[in-house]
Amino acid sequence: GDSVTQMEGPVTLSEEAFLTINCTYTATGYPSLFWYVQYPGEGLQLLLKATKADDKGSNKGFEATYRKETTSFHLEKGSVQVSDSAVYFCALSPYNQGGKLIFGQGTELSVKP
Amino acid sequence: DGGITQSPKYLFRKEGQNVTLSCEQNLNHDAMYWYRQDPGQGLRLIYYSQIVNDFQKGDIAEGYSVSREKKESFPLTVTSAQKNPTAFYLCASSSGRGDGNIQYFGAGTRLSVL
After folding, report:
1. Which helix (H) or strand (E) holds A103?
2. How confident is the model over B22-30, as a mean pLDDT?
3. What pLDDT is recorded for position B1?
4. pLDDT in the model for residue A29
5. Do B33 and A101 touch (CB under 8 A)?
């Protein structure tokens, strides 16, 4: 079945460091891909999305490119801030399955001053 | 403000008790979802509903029940048959049309067993 695999955390970075969180997926057809962020004790917020191959989603300095050839959707940010500390979830919405989301296990990011 | 409201924020269940978690949305979305989150894990789908008076089981529906009598409401009941209910429960909704199936989430309910 469809699935999402993320790099394990926690990831600890110093402020202004470059961030990459790897995400690969297995799916039939053409899923939509998402990154969500969860701050402590809160629900999930959509960070960015891409709906077709080669699309680049971007928001708040974060970027991810939908790579069908490598089935990947890696999250990147050029310079992280302490306020970026959170748990990041990669997710896919399978084609024609009623809008369901399949999540990766989440990657905790901690940014130190 | 449009959004999804979950209540209560914290809930405690006694042995053998059923408890109901509330989820209300004013986004005029057709689809609603319930997820369970355990520490260090991703979200797992419990139930979902694409339209009023209809719902489907997700991956971990055993020990849970739902209803969808109104478009804006999708309550989740954790029954006594759910032997390990302690978790963070998240409700979400989506329009299901033209936006790549973006789901919007509530702030969650943390359920603990007394």
Report:
1. strand A102-103
2. 95
3. 61
4. 83
5. yes
* B44, B100, B107: residue with CB nearest A49: B100
Find out whether B24 and B72 touch, Cβ atoms under 8 Å.
yes
CB proximity under 8 Å: A 9-48 to B: 32, 34, 36, 41-46
Mean of per-residue pLDDT scores for chain B:
92
Contacts of residue A98 in chain B, CB cutoff 8 Å?
A: 31, 48, 50, 56, 96
A7 pLDDT above the threshold of 90: no
User: Which residues in chain A have Cβ-Cβ distances shorter than 8 Å to B108?
Assistant: 41-43
Structure tokens at B104: 């919007």
pLDDT at A28 over 90: no
Structure tokens at B112: 């603990």
Instruction: For residue range B52-89, list pLDDT tens digits in order.
Output: 999 999 999 999 999 999 999 999 999 999 989 999 99
Which residues lie below 8 Å from residue B114, measured CB to CB, with a gap of 6+? B12, B13, B14, B15
Give B29-92 as a 3 state SS string: CCEEEEEEECCCCCEEEEEEEEECCEEEECCCCCCEEECCCECCECCEEECCCCCCCCEEEEEE
Angle at B29 between CA B23 and CA B34, to 5 degrees: 40
